[in-house]
Design a protein that fits this description.
With about 600 residues, the chain is an alpha/beta fold. It has helices at about 40-50, 70-75, 90-100, 110-115, 130-145, 160-175, 190-195, 210-220, 230-250, 270-280, 320-335, 350-360, 365-390, 395-400, 410-425, 440-475, 485-510, 515-535, 545-555, 560-575, 575-600, and strands at about 1-10, 20-25, 30-35, 55-60, 65, 75-80, 150-155, 180-185, 195-200, 205-210, 220-225, 255-260, 265, 285-295. A hairpin with a 2-residue loop joins strand 4 (about 55-60) and strand 5. Helix 6 crosses helix 11 (about 320-335).
Length: about 600
């Protein structure tokens, strides 16, 4: 059950709030339609309800605010617009990735694909999906966590009649099984077809909160739509004949409303009666048809003769042609089957974010292409340096000429790290709206772990690939094992790992892959020269002998090999690059954690 109490959006400058003191309910087992014309505030109301936009008011889901719900994807399924997935990812891969984020088994993806009728297209890429397939996939993503509530923003917009009929049947079946469904729509006829309750808003304010039958009786009425260059004359003729007929038979009320210009709406009559009246008075007709009329969320219009209309009569038993066609499409589409839900889905554990990140990173080819290009560039530069001669052996092995701020492998690791968050903001699959990604520390730790593994593997692969290629091309005497190879290997790995993490944190903080790469390049080009000039000054104190002092001060004596590791770490950190990376990572991590706590709902 959804309870929205006093929702009010934050007013913009010199403008009224998009949503103003809106209160309504969406009960379980029922389809509730939030109806309003474009710009009435429907989407803003949903965003306030889901805590996506700032504002005031209370939104409760089964009696709890959203920030008190332990696992929101298990409580609320949201579809706001198109699926924000990577176009190169397959439908099954996209849902398996989201199933890890929701904390449900990966097999759940195949279940919901079967529910929405996309089993045969599970291996197709999202970029090749049509609009109808995209909406089905969005509904499948909303159903992954077996939510109690579905919230959808104009899900039938621009869909074909057949797809619309299937969607309406799906929502009705979900509500019949006890779920609460909240849908926005600008079409009163669609609201009357699918809703159990219709909440009408206009300019962000509540206009009416009605049962579907009452809504149809008071707002939707069958009418004859007429267009004629002599609309005023025809209106008076129809009104006069209606008054004569009402005097003879008091039960028959005909209402004529002049819509403006050459258009008339005639309620309580038929095309035959209106056409015969026009023929008798010699009035030319350009249009004559029967349809369902929308009286709008305003007081009833005046009749053409200036008098108030009679009370609305209930719609006749006959169904308009458009509605009949949709019902035929729904019958042709077959019965809608709900998911075969497990009695109790397992509770998420700390491994779920890690599984999500693994599936995100390996589900598209971008990361693999960046790694392959980095290794190829590192190998090419290493061969050119070895062939020309004169470069130090560590720079030859790592493919790092003096002209480049970073070697290709390290830059590739930084780009992989920046993509870890950059792709999230470009294709925000984790969020129900475009452009934001939930800032969770569990997600950050998972990205740091996966990026660290990728960076270390990239560093070792580039080193061994360059060494093997140089030995094969120029002989083993070109590549010799230096005395302090352990320190050099540790420094090379730390440099690659630090740049990868710098790109990741910067992209997560600034919401951009490009800015993440800029932060990686800023370490050697800006931070290192500044720190180098500071560290070049003579120091009165040094850290020489720190391992021995730590050993003597420690209560538990560690093995002697630890001293060598501490000394190696101090040597690495004492370098300007080490200081620059340490300071940059500390500042980025602190800023990201601060953004996490500041972004929490209050």
């Amino acid at each position: 059950m959804i309870q929205a109490i006093g929702l009010t959006s934050a007013p913009q400058r010199n403008r009224f709030p998009a949503v103003d003191d809106l209160t309504f309910e969406a009960r379980p087992g029922r389809v509730t339609v939030l109806l309003g014309a474009p710009g009435a505030g429907k989407t803003s109301a949903l965003r306030l309800l889901l805590r996506l936009d700032p504002g005031r008011g209370v939104a409760l889901f089964r009696g709890r605010p959203l920030d008190r719900v332990p696992h929101p994807t298990r409580e609320i399924g949201v579809v706001l617009g198109d699926v924000p997935g990577h176009p190169a990812r397959t439908a099954r891969g996209h849902l398996r990735m989201l199933s890890a984020a929701a904390g449900v088994p990966a097999e759940r993806a195949d279940d919901v694909l079967e529910v929405v009728g996309l089993t045969g297209l599970a291996g197709q890429r999202l970029g090749d999906f049509s609009l109808g397939m995209d909406r089905r996939l969005g509904l499948a993503a909303a159903l992954l966590g077996d939510p109690h509530t579905l919230v959808l923003d104009e899900p039938a917009h621009e869909l074909s009649p057949r797809e619309t009929a299937w969607l309406h049947g799906m929502l009705r079946a979900y509500a019949d099984h006890g779920g609460a469904v909240l849908v926005t729509s600008p079409d009163p006829r669609e609201a009357a077809r699918i809703a159990d309750r219709v909440v009408t808003i206009d300019e962000g304010r509540l206009v009416a909160d009605q049962e579907a039958a009452e809504f149809s009786r008071t707002r939707l009425r069958p009418r004859v739509a007429v267009q004629s260059p002599l609309a005023g004359r025809l209106a008076h003729a129809l009104t006069a004949e209606a008054d004569e007929a009402a005097a003879a038979e008091p039960g028959q009320a005909v209402e004529v409303v002049q819509e403006g210009g050459s258009k008339l709406s005639v309620y309580g009559s038929t095309c035959a009666v209106v056409g015969e009246t026009a023929y008798r008075h010699g009035i030319l007709l350009h249009r004559l048809t029967e349809e369902i009329g929308d009286t709008g969320p305003v007081p009833p219009l005046l009749r053409a003769d200036g008098r108030r209309p009679a009370p609305s009569a209930p719609p006749p038993a006959g169904t308009p042609e458009g509605v009949r066609a949709e019902e035929q499409d729904a019958a042709a589409a077959g019965p809608v089957q709900l998911p075969r839900l497990q009695p109790r889905l397992p509770a998420p554990d700390p491994a779920w974010p890690l599984r999500y990140e693994l599936r995100r990173a390996t589900g598209v080819r971008t990361g693999w292409i960046v790694a392959a290009a980095s290794l190829a560039a590192s190998l090419l530069v290493a061969v050119l340096l070895a062939r020309s001669g004169g470069a130090p052996e560590p720079r030859v092995l790592t493919g790092w000429p003096a002209l480049l701020p970073l070697p290709p492998a390290v830059f590739g690791a930084g780009l992989v790290g920046a993509l870890a968050f950059g792709q999230e903001f470009r294709y925000p699959a984790l969020a129900p709206d475009q452009g934001t990604v939930p800032r969770r520390l569990g997600l950050l730790f998972a990205k740091l772990t996966v990026t660290a593994v990728a960076a270390v593997l990239l560093a070792l692969a580039s080193l061994f690939l360059d060494a093997g290629a140089l030995g094969l091309l120029f002989g083993n005497d070109v590549v010799s094992l230096p005395r302090d190879w352990a320190v050099l290997l540790a420094g090379w790995t730390a440099l690659t790992l630090g740049c990868a993490w710098a790109g990741l944190l910067a992209a997560g903080l600034f919401r951009s892959t490009a800015l993440g790469v800029v932060a990686v390049l800023a370490v050697p080009t800006l931070v290192v020269p500044v720190l180098g000039s500071v560290l070049a000054e003579p120091a009165a104190r040094s850290l020489v002998g720190l391992p021995e002092r730590l050993r003597s001060a420690a209560v538990v004596q560690w093995p002697s090999g630890v001293d060598r590791g501490v000394s190696t770490a101090l040597r690495l950190v004492s370098q300007p690059v080490g200081w620059a990376l340490a300071l940059s990572l500390g500042a980025l991590l602190g800023a990201y954690v601060l953004a996490v706590f500041r972004g929490r709902p209050r």
